[in-house]
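Example (one chain per record):
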Amino acid sequence: MSKLATDRLAGSISRLFDLAGDDRLTQTQRSEVSALAKRLRGRLVDLLSARFADDLAEISDANAKIAALTQQLADANDAINKIADVVKQITALAGALDKLIVLATKFH
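Predicted structure:
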């Protein structure tokens, strides 16, 4: 009997809800992610008790898509964290340049 990767799907849904509350995303992005997370959660609930024939191609396809989503969510999280690090570096650079401007004006 084919089985959907419901545990992996549940983890991805949880991550989507985390993203829906992440203020580093725009409000529009958070709303879209929240709506999609709710949609997937509903499908998950419906599919938890479903049984399918052995070697059903649609199950394999869905499991591959769940695996891809899991990876994309991890990649997105890494990208968001990298952007946050870049913003910190830019802030530090701006502070250093502010100090240089103060020093430069003292010599005029």
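Caption: Helices lie at 6-20, 27-47, 57-106.
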